[in-house]
Amino acid sequence: MSKVFRELLRKVGSGRHTGKDLSRQEAELATKMILEQEATPAQIGAFMIAHRIKRPTGVELAGMLDAYDHLGGRVEAVDSKRTVLVLGSPYDGRSRTAPISPIASLILASAGCPTLLHGGDRMPTKDGLPLIDIWQALGVNWQQLSLAQVRQVLSETNLGFVYLPRHFPLAQGIVPFREQVGKRPPFATLELIWAPYLGKALTVSGFVHPPTETNIREAFALRGVTEFATIKGLEGSVDLPRDRTAILGIHRGGAFERLTLSARDYNLHGKDVEIAEALEISQTIASTLKGEPSEYMQSAIWNGGFYLWLYGISADLQSGLDRAKEILTTGIAERKLKDVKEAIAVFTTC
């Protein structure tokens, strides 16, 4: 048993009246001890539940991110002057709506915006469809690449994916604890805001509950992150909905701006596409890349256009939507998918 960890656990697990928040340094230490499993299984499980009940603070999230940066695998900068768009969605996947970020990232990469995604396999407790399964069904095999190879693919094609089991095995090692405690631990929030990239980044984080966004903003402020966006997206992801108003925040130049966007204002309102198996979604993506009209096409344009505007490639949202549609209907995004496959094949066929 770790006596050091026991004291940290006592602070977060002592209840409403006597419990205390961890300092940034204590949160970093606790996270390191969990990732390296210096704490016992009983201590790790107890901490996950106690911290969930207490709710992590922005200070604690900042410390936890410090530990992730110290121990986790991150991609080296491809170009010190270029900003990489890092999209952070829940690792435990989707169970109601089809993910849009795979095709949106192809639109972005086609337009010259380097985009980095990250995640793992099916993750408890939701065990929803993860992004990696959709990429696999599309014939894009990120799983076998080293971080150096991910960097090269990102540099050549503007697209990359950090795969938790291979690139951050310490974090993968605590997945069984998440299964056993039966509730999302604060690590689930951490994954939304972690940027596994060592260069200049614009981090986009999904969220569901407003207090979570408040804590995200505080954590970013403490860590000196000045370029980020928060999105109340589909199932807590970074995918903008079409059947309701999208709520988001953008922090740039030291100022935070709250925005609400309605797809109806741009003639893109409709029903968000329902979840399906990875193979079916990959087939839908393939037909969309050929320019075939569908509800999924509308969602791809809505999301792709927004991100083109957010990144600064398009001067306004409408021109971003027009550009996204052009990239899809003229085969540019389809060719980008082919480029990514060929870039990865160089490593996976050796």
From TrEMBL:
Keyword Transferase attached: yes
Gene Ontology CC annotations of this record: cytosol
Protein keywords: Amino-acid biosynthesis, Aromatic amino acid biosynthesis, Glycosyltransferase, Transferase
Alphabetical list of Pfam families matching this protein: Glycos_trans_3N (PF02885), Glycos_transf_3 (PF00591)
SUPFAM superfamilies in the record: Nucleoside phosphorylase/phosphoribosyltransferase catalytic domain (SSF52418), Nucleoside phosphorylase/phosphoribosyltransferase N-terminal domain (SSF47648)
Leader sequence segment: none
Protein name: Anthranilate phosphoribosyltransferase family protein
Lineage, opening ranks: Bacteria, Bacillati, Cyanobacteriota, Cyanophyceae, Pseudanabaenales
